[in-house]
Amino acid sequence: MNIEEMINEQYQYLSPTERSIAEYIANHKDELKTLSITKLAEKTTSSKASIVRLSQKLGFKGFTELKSFFMWGDKNIPEKLTYTSKASIVTSLQQTIDYLNNTKWDDIYQLIDESEKIYVMYTGVSQKNQTMEMERLFLFIGKPVLSIPADKESYEFKHFFNVLKPKDLIFIVSLSGNNQNLNDILNLLSLKRVKIISLTGHSDNLLSQRVDHRLYAASLNNTKLSEYSLQSNSLFYVVIEALVFGYLEHKNLQ
């Protein structure tokens, strides 16, 4: 992943000052290799604290690690920099909190109210666990939800597709939102004229571009353990709980 992709993933969570610093960094890569944090702050009329915060939002421990990234020729991040740290989890949690505080979901609540049935589609094992939590929470507030795999060849999907009606509502949960299998599924769902809401970990992805409404959880880098990969999914649960309890609050205010 290059620096432009990192900035793009986090852009909606950056403050105006952080965006200005990010744009300078993206346009002065060679200069950054030898630039001190003090000089960078002067050139961007910002502060060292703002630069450190930006570095952490991009997935680095601080400016020194960000600077090291450019020493590798702006190619892939060295393996030691791809580990999810405690600090990055805290930063991503704060990003998600900021997103929740600044996002209105009234249109989504109305769709939930008006829907005849609600389905939640998942793209992997972790997402299946997340949809099970959605099922549990929605059941407690009187809105039964059925989860199914995002696999058009599965028996569950074929049965679901046959009984799907225009007034039904579909949530699709995907980590990246770029699963190519989703393209075929979205093409099929468009024939049914149903409303679709995505929940993904990236702000710019194939899925979010093709749905009616979109939810986001701040994404984290994988932590590599030998041939295995450990992914943090806690922020998806935060967004799911905010959605369900927000809907419950919406109903109580009516």
Instruction: Give the overall pLDDT as a whole number.
Output: 84
Q: In CATH terms, what is the architecture of the largest domain? A: 3-Layer(aba) Sandwich
Judged by helices, strands and strand pairing, the structural class is: alpha/beta
Described by the principal axes of the CA atoms, the overall outline is elongated
CATH classification, class level of the largest domain: Alpha Beta
Helix content: 40-55%
**SSE order:** HHHHHHHHEHEHEHEEEEH
Named CATH topology of the largest domain = Rossmann fold
Distance between the termini: 46 Å
The low-pLDDT segments are: 73-82, 224-229
Please outline what is shown here:
With 254 residues, the chain is α/β, with parallel strands linked by helices. It has twelve helices and seven strands. It has helices at residues 3-10, 16-27, 29-32, 37-43, 48-57, 63-71, 86-101, 106-114, 125-140, 155-163, 181-190, 234-253; strands at residues 118-122, 145-149, 169-174, 195-200, 213-216, 223-225, 228-230.
Care to describe what's here?
The chain is of the alpha/beta class and about 250 residues long. The chain has 2 domains: about 5-80, Orthogonal Bundle (Arc Repressor Mutant, subunit A); about 100-254, Rossmann fold (3-Layer(aba) Sandwich), CATH 3.40.50.10490. The chain is built from 12 helices and 7 strands. The chain has helices at about 5-10, 15-25, 30, 35-45, 50-55, 65-70, 85-100, 105-115, 125-140, 155-165, 180-190, 235-254, and strands at about 120, 145-150, 170-175, 195-200, 215, 225, 230. The strands form 2 sheets. It has a 5-stranded parallel sheet with strand order 2-1-3-4-5, with helices on both faces. The chain has a two-stranded antiparallel sheet with strand order 6-7. α9 (about 125-140) links the parallel β1 (about 120) and β2 (about 145-150). α7 runs parallel beside α12 and α9 runs parallel beside α12. Mean pLDDT is about 85; it is low at about 75-80 and about 225-230. It comes from Enterococcus florum. This is HTH-type transcriptional regulator GlvR. GO terms for molecular function: carbohydrate derivative binding; DNA binding; DNA-binding transcription factor activity. Keywords: DNA-binding, Transcription, Transcription regulation.
